[in-house]
# Entry
Amino acid sequence: GSCLGPLLYVIYASKLFGIIEKHLPDAHCFADDSQLYLAFKPDSYMEQNKALAAMENCIRDIRSWMRNDRLLLNDDKTEFLIIGTKQQLAKVNISQIKIGDLVVDKSKVVRNLGSWFDERFIMETHINKVCKTAFYHLHNIRRIRKYLSPESAEILVHAFITTRLDYCKSLMFGVPQYELAKLQRVQNAAARLICKLPASSPGANKKFHASHYMKGLHEVVRRDEQAQGFMAPGDEAVSTGFQLIIPSRNNLRNNEETLLVPPPGKSLISSDYCNILFSST
# Structure
């Protein structure tokens, strides 16, 4: 609970990445939440078993180090998820992972720092939960709307609705349009609330669109993507996003500029690899 607590924990747990690097290519940590990643080809059982063994060996060494340093791995809070396309997931035969004496079943959805990851990474569960919470708050605000000025209503909408739509919005890049349409309906309802338009009417979503008053969600996502692309070449903090784009190699007069082009395809998931995500708090 002290101000130095997070910093002291990072120093105390600094050996963690050294252990992980012996087994796995990548990992993320946020405070005491640790996540291990591993990509593998699901076409052969050998590749699947090799990936599972690497993950289990890494976890075993982490548990041994934590036990020696008097730290505790929360086995009951541990989850693992396999992310891939529908065709890739059909080939995977991994359903469990062993952590000490505990066997953890594969999850279809896991929570990751306030967002929800599903096995196909289309963010369906995350979007559904955001929409459910947003409409709950819109209902409450609508009950007192007649007592509010337009400015006050806008402040409440931004505080309770827009902040939820903005959180982790860069993860929405590549999400199917039918999923983004759910979030767009939330924006439409929020704009109607601010402008005192009927909450629902025949053909309301067809006749009214929030873009008259608020920018469309796809524009918000694209602006965030462009901002990360601008920072990526010189900022290690967004190096993960930099892996999604490649430098332009056109031999033109402006070839001295740092130009970036988007990767081919619409999905962030490789057509050849599945990814194991192991998370423990």
Observations:
- The mean pLDDT is 78.
- The chain has two domains: 4-120+272-280, 124-226.
